[in-house]
Amino acid sequence: MFKFVAYLAAYAVYPLSFLFPRNKKKWAFGSFRGAFNDNAKYLFIYCSEHYPEVDCIWLSKSRSTVRDIRALGLKAHFIASTAGILHALTSKYWFYNSYTSDIMFALSGGAVSVNLWHGVGLKRIEFNITSGTLARRYQQREFFEVFYHPESFKRPNWVLTSTPFQTDMFAPAFRIPKNRCLELGYPRNLVLTCSEADRQSFIAKYETESTRRLVNKITTSGYSKVFIYMPTWRDSQREVLTQSFDMPKLNSLLVEQNALLLLKPHANVIVDKAEFDKLSNVAFIDGKTDVYPVMPYTDVLITDYSSVLYDYILMEPRKDVILYLYDYADYVKDRDLFYPFDENVVGRKVYSFDELYHCIENGDYTIDASERQRIIDKLWGETATQIPSGRIAEMTLNGQLA
Question: Is the same domain home to 93 and 144?
Fold first, then answer.
């Protein structure tokens, strides 16, 4: 009942948010679950550093996130505070990773909303979804799905994409014309493609102590190979790490090869840390850790249908990929794909734990250079080597994102 009343209040506030005058040189930033991450984080840092004439403010539902950002010397406010509400209501531009609820939907009226999204890829998203649990929201539009998720039905003014290939998918997904898609690439990828000196400077200045410790462990421990497992979220597999892995057996192989496996499971995955702490060559990346500054220090990505694949292959020197597709048939039943899978991915495909084990054992995961480049050209095009944050900021200042 409390939640229902709270949403009713939000619906009442939303029309009033259109009445507030908004400052074109005040930009609000936010991310899902109050975190400080993804494209919005990197755009916020870039704009804060390079555009002192703009009032860049991070607004978060998490007080600890606000404290952390302020400790970096950047401007942040708790969204439910008086200052947070006023900044949300008077910022002309909102930059966010998923929905206006990354800041606060009820205060978004009259703001120019720029959805930076959180991954190019093949999966159907938003209004492209035709099956699975989310179809209840986007296709059947069941009452409570719509009532409790108004942010999903608010069309953004702009959506960040990378190439026409992605725009063809994103435009109908967000119900906007193609000319409202900004084919500029992703701000977060700069930390993957910049020089090592620039990356180390960024990590020293903006990353947490735990991230710095992890990078130091990887770079000083003498591992012959560092694997990182980053699966996509599965509604039915909250215990995916125990259902699809024989971790003790895999750990023994890693010990033999003097290799390390980093695990970055989805936040909703159930993890028995005590059991995994017994494994000498397997390490978790904390849920609050931004994995992007860590990825350049790994050698092989193990993933499945996650869009992280497309970011990972941008890095030089070239890195390798294993696609662990143990549940492919079941997955596509619940979450269909907008584009065909096999012709739009690169990497060594394995379909069982035994195949994965032998793939790692034999080192049989080198990706074909020409196939890698073909996928980069299709998914990223010229944006693979561009710095989108500056382009986004200049377009905003010049009034192009009205």
Answer: yes
Please give the Cα distance from 352 to 325 (Å, whole number). 7
Q: What is the DSSP string of 226-273?
A: EEEE-PPP-TT-TTHHHHS--HHHHHHHHHHHTEEEEE---TTS---H
Q: Could you give the CA distance from residue 67 to residue 53 in angstroms, rounded to a whole number? A: 23
Task: Quote the radius of gyration of the chain (alpha carbons, Å).
Answer: 21
How many CB atoms lie under 10 A from the CB of residue 193? 18
Question: In this structure, are 353 and 302 located in the same domain?
Answer: yes
Rounded-to-integer distance, Cα 19 and Cα 35, Å: 29
3-state secondary structure of 157: coil
pLDDT (tens digit, 9 = 90+) per residue, 51-85? 999 999 999 999 999 999 999 999 999 999 999 99
Number of domains in the chain: 2
What is the dihedral sign for C-alpha 134, 136, 138, 139? Answer: positive
The predicted model scores a pTM of 0.94
CA 5 distance to own-chain centroid: 31
Contact partners, residue 203, CB within 8 Å, separation at least 6: 211, 212, 215, 293
Please report whether residue 300 resides in a domain: yes
Cα 298 from Cα 300, distance rounded (Å): 6
pLDDT (tens digit, 9 = 90+) per residue, 126-179?
A: 999 988 888 999 999 999 999 999 999 999 999 999 999 999 999 999 999 999
